[in-house]
Design a protein that fits this description.
With about 270 residues, the protein is an alpha/beta fold. The chain contains eleven helices and eight strands. The C terminus is likely disordered.
């Protein structure tokens, strides 16, 4: 797994016929890592795809952060290190908050947004904040969070895999993630984000119910919304093929400018 700006990441290179598509960056949620996105998404035929591990997550060392803006700065530094000038960002839950913040703070770097299990605010229950950072109550807190991330019909194997992944993170890092989510709020700034946006939500999402995505769809000038049946908060884990199809179609719909505006204008002026 390669490393840039202190962050590890997975990379899936585009096929020759996909070279004109904008790169897609996958940003995981609280307590997750690059593997939070299943292979159907990480390796889909939709141009160059990057899935990173945020600081303190997965194979990225160091400490986690306690604000969404700090995480956004880390992703921006990582993009600059890889010379990714502009990309489509797809974030789930906390990752969607990071993507929204990047679009506001570094607008030239963000071509479009795919927001999964997202909200303009991500308030966290006090009971989670009180228990998730304590080693003695950590597993019980993870069990509670995990149970609320899926639909009623989730397979036991997926539920267990999700718990195993979250248990691998250190309690202070997971607490920092939820503290970051709890203070996140871009409600007043959504009209500033005028790039194409796709919101995806599981019909049975308990953490960020459908109304959260509906709010984003109504407030963002160029947003569209898709609700996925038989899925909860981690909709991409429960319905990977459906989400992959939605993301692929969205990426393919984003035009890639190959020449500067003035060059295009010059080319169209009769001699």
């Amino acid at each position: 797994m390669p490393l840039a700006a202190g962050l590890y990441y997975l990379f899936h290179a585009s096929a020759q016929e996909e070279k004109k598509l904008s790169p897609l960056i996958l940003i995981h949620g609280a307590g997750g890592n690059s593997l939070s996105f299943p292979p159907q998404i990480r390796r889909m035929a939709a141009g160059d795809i990057y899935a990173l591990d945020l600081p303190g997550h997965g194979q990225s060392e160091g400490l986690g952060r306690q604000t969404i803006e700090e995480y956004a700065d880390e992703v921006a530094a990582w993009m600059k290190a890889l010379k990714i000038r502009r990309a489509i960002l797809a974030g789930v839950s906390m990752g969607s908050a990071i993507a929204l913040t990047l679009a506001l703070k570094y607008p030239r770097m963000v071509k479009a947004l795919a927001l999964i299990g997202a909200g303009a605010r991500l308030r966290v229950a006090q009971s989670i904040l009180d228990t998730v950072g304590n080693a003695a109550t950590f597993e019980a807190a993870v069990d509670f969070i995990n149970a609320n991330c899926f639909s009623e019909n989730v397979s036991p194997s997926l539920l267990e895999l999700s718990k195993k992944q979250m248990m691998e993170i250190r309690p202070p890092v997971l607490l920092g993630d939820f503290l970051a989510c709890n203070t996140f709020n871009v409600v007043e700034r959504l009209p500033e984000i005028k790039i194409p946006t796709l919101t995806i939500c599981g019909a049975e999402d308990k953490m960020t119910p459908v109304k959260y995505s509906q709010y984003l769809k109504d407030a963002l000038p160029r947003a569209q919304m898709r609700v996925v049946e038989n899925a909860g908060h981690l909709v991409m884990a429960e319905q990977p093929e459906v989400v992959a199809d939605l993301l692929k179609s969205f990426v393919e719909s984003i035009p890639v400018r190959t020449r500067k505006k003035k060059e295009v204008e010059a080319a169209t002026v009769p001699s």
